[in-house]
Amino acid sequence: MAIRLRRLWVNLDDDQNLILLNRPRVSFEIDQYVWNIIEQGIVIPNGIMQSEKHDYVLVVSLSKYNSDTDLSFVPSPYNGILRDATLLSVNKTSGLLYKRADFVDGQTRKRWFSPSKFWTNQGNKTALVRACADIVTEHITPLEYADLLFDAFGAFLLYNFKRVKKSDLDELKIKIDKNVIRGFSFPAPFSQQQYQGDNANFRLTSYENGQEKILIDIPDVETFYKQHFTE
Known about the structure:
By secondary structure, the chain is α/β, with parallel strands linked by helices. It has 6 helices and 9 strands.
C-alpha cells in the first residue's frame, strides 16, 4: 500500500498560452511536506487509506477562484455555514451541491473547497483534492500555498471519512513549520514543480460544429515554459 501525490493544473486564461505560466511556481516538496504532517497526524492514527489491496493516488488541483464559473459546492466546515438550518442536517458526504448564496458568507468568500470521492483507476484508488481561491496564481507564496493546501487536504478527508474531525485538523495545522516552508526554492525551478504533463507535450482542443479546433499545441512543455519564464 502506498499513498502517492500528483499535481494537476487545468486553469484557462483569456490568453490561452498563459495556461502553463500562471500556475503556482512552488516546489512539489511543499505538497509532500504538508501531506506527511497530515498522514502522520491524522491518516495513520485513524487507520484510513491503509488497504493492502491497492495504492491511493491524490491529485491536487488548485485553481484561481472565478465567480462566474465557481458556483456550487458541497457542505463542508471549510466552506462555511449553510444559511438554512434545515440544510445543516444534510449528510455532508451525500454529494449534494449548494449555491454560493446558500452559504452565510457565500457572496464574499473567495476560498472554496470541492473534494471528490474515490474512483478506481488502473487498480488504484484515486481522488481529486480540489480548492479554488483568489490567490492561486503564479504569485502565490509558499506559505500561502501551504496554508490553502492543508485545508484542501482537510476538506478532502472530512468529505470521505467520518472519523476525521475538523478540530483535530486545526490542531495539527499549527505544526506546519513556516521556516521549513520558507526554505523551499521560490520561484521553484521547472523541474521542482512537477505538474502532470510536464514531461510531455500539451494539447488543448475544442469542438465547434463537429470540428476539432486546436487551441494550444505545445510539443515540449519544459522548453516552452523556460522560453517564457527565466528561472
